[in-house]
Amino acid sequence: MKRIFLAPFLALLGLLAYAPLAAQQALPTSAEVHKILVDRIDAQHQGVGIVVGLVDPSGRRIVAYGTFDKDKRAVDGDTLFEIGSVTKVFTSLLLAEDVVRGDVKLDDPVAKYLPSEVKVPERGGKKITLVDLATHTSGLPRLPTNMHPKDLSNPYADYSVKQLYEFLSAYELPRDIGSRYEYSNLGAGLLGVALSRQAGTDYETLVRKRITAPLSMTSTAISLTSALKQRLAPGHDRQGERVPNWDLPALAGAGAIRSSANDMLTFVSANLGLTESPLATPMALMLKTRRPTGVPGLEVALAWHISSRNGREIVWHNGGTGGYRSFIGFDPKARIGVVVLANMFTDSGVDDIGQHLLDPTVPLVGPPKERKAIAVDPKVLERYVGSYELAPNFVLTVTREGDHLFAQATGQGKNEIFAESERDFFLKVVDAQITFQTDASGATTGLVLHQAGRDVPGRRLAAMVPPPKERKEVALDPAILDRYTGRYRLTPAMVIAITREGDHLFLQATGQSKLEMFAEGEHDFFLKVVDAQVTFVSEGAAPATKLILHQNGMDVPATRIE
Questions:
Q1: How far apart are CA 303 and CA 134, in angstroms?
Q2: What is the pLDDT of residues 486-520, one digit of tens each?
Q3: Superfamily for the 19-100+201-358 domain
Q4: Residues 264 and 339: beta-carbon distance below 8 Å
Q5: Which of 22, 218, 229, 367 is 20 to 30 A (C-alpha) from 210?
Q6: Residues 247, 156: Cα–Cα separation, whole Å
Q7: Dist. CA 239–CA 382, nearest whole Å
Q8: Do domains 378-460 and 478-560 have the same CATH topology?
Q9: Taking a C-beta distance cutoff of 8 angstroms, is the pair 556, 505 a contact?
């Protein structure tokens, strides 16, 4: 659930947040939490309203700062937010409860609970099971390829169960089922569909009957009553502009729920065993089944992610929709839990706040510091050339051109990295740094990507991964380029401005930097800083009527408005 333009390397972290854990177990004071929120909103301008909930054996607390919108109405523990992918925890709890009730088995094929005419992909004689979906190891992609939203400000709204079934029936798995972790909104949504069909009801009703009603979570729902709508904080994009709410009718199990900090604290408290709950047994079952993610110190259980270090485990999940970010997490042994909800989408989200409150050694994300580039001998740079695996299906390839070093992540553009020491490099296009690791002989063995307060290691691969398709520039008459200059509306909140400077064409999306585009045909252009292309639609020598943005496997049209 991402924006159109992704800052380079940001996609690596997605919904994975690896952070070091230490022995500290006490939660911060309310004053300390308040200070963090004031800095995040007032100093960094990375929030409109943020609500934090904390719970331990001594009780629960709410710390809130900020507002609903420009109306200055303060957010509080009863304010509703979209919780996005935290919904997946609810979906897997439904699965665990069905297992405890004896209605399903974890290794049941998902096809057992779908219409007989739906052909669920198989591979090597193995079928996709319910546990494969819950642990993101099904082999299904993050999103279905037949998802082409008419309105990117509400991208899931027009995707139907019929389209989901059509996708499944035509899809071929790229690898063996259960062999690798790959986070999948599609898989979680499919799990929600299967469990709803098994129960003979819709997903929202199932969540209400099995989870929110037994836990008395009266402010948690998908379809909101008029009273709940009054408490729903409007979502905002990274520029602080108000954006529409998201609807996920077919893939509800992946991210459709709205809730409040007070309700989510009730949910976390039940998971910790601080309050008695009829769901205690299935909640415990969720943590027993675990599979590796490919990231050191990080496993996936039934939806929950589990970070481990220094003898401690933090159980967590995060979420994000077009105008919201969310985090819930807890330490089962220390019996402490944290909820963080925000009504503004930001790249780093609120994960660092949640992780920091659970373990103060995890750093908070701050404004990027000013870094100074130095010259490094090209012979030293040559040692770092190679490919580094940071996660399954995510490789960082480092290349050299003279005395310049470049890094290119899977599916993203090539970016120069600048040395600030012989082993430490930084990017200028995004707040990220790279440290190369060497052995006693000086041979490079790996690297560590530092981004959003996280340190993600990558092992050096024996062979260089082939770079993505090489695109060749062609020269176009400036008169042709003039046909394309103008403004194109991609979504209600995002406009793409196309400008010309001499024989160069530039693209600038709302709230983002201006980027040069390079022609590879009369109508077709590509960007170098990110893996994205643009096709202009025009008749003859007339000005273009629209453009189509090609990125992340999607083709998104934008109509010319001036």
A1: 5
A2: 999 887 667 899 999 999 999 988 767 688 999 99
A3: DD-peptidase/beta-lactamase superfamily (3.40.710.10)
A4: yes
A5: 229
A6: 6
A7: 40
A8: yes
A9: no
- In this prediction, residue 452 carries a pLDDT of 62
For 49, phi and psi rounded to 5 degrees?
Answer: -140, 135
Output the pLDDT for position 511. Answer: 66
Structure tokens at 75: 């957010």
Task: Compute the distance between CA of residue 35 and CA of residue 45 in angstroms, rounded to an integer.
Answer: 14
Provide the whole-model pTM. 0.71
Cβ–Cβ < 8 Å for 436, 450: no
Tokens of 546: 């629209």
Question: Is 478-560 in CATH node 1.20.58?
Answer: no
Contact 561, 487 (CB under 8 A): yes
Output the average pLDDT for the chain: 90
Condensed to tens digits (0 to 9), the pLDDT of residues 177-218 reads 999 998 999 999 999 999 999 999 999 999 999 999 999 999
Q: Which residues pair with 327 in a beta bridge?
A: 318, 340
* Distance of alpha carbon 195 from alpha carbon 258, whole angstroms: 20
What is the DSSP-derived secondary structure letter of residue 389? E
Residues in the chain predicted with pLDDT less than 70, given as ranges, are 1-25, 368, 392-393, 411, 452-453, 466-470, 492-493, 511, 513, 552-553
Looking at residue 493, its pLDDT comes to 66
Query: 210 phi and psi, to 5 degrees?
Result: -95, -25
Please say whether the beta carbons of 350 and 343 come within 8 A.
no
| Structural domain boundaries in the chain | 19-100+201-358, 378-460, 478-560
Question: Which residue shows structure tokens 């109508």?
Answer: 523
Q: 67 forms bridges with which residues in the sheet?
A: 74
**Helix, strand, coil in percent for the chain, rounding step 5:** 25, 30, 45
DSSP of 30-55, one letter per residue?
HHHHHHHHHIIIIIS---SEEEEEEE
DSSP code of 538? Answer: -
Question: What is the DSSP secondary-structure string of 420-452?
Answer: SSSSEEEESSSSEEEEEEE-TTS-EEEEEEEET
Residue 359 bridge partners (DSSP): none
Instruction: Say if residues 404 and 414 touch (Cβ distance below 8 Å).
Output: no
In angstroms, how far apart are the furthest CA atoms of the chain?
A: 73
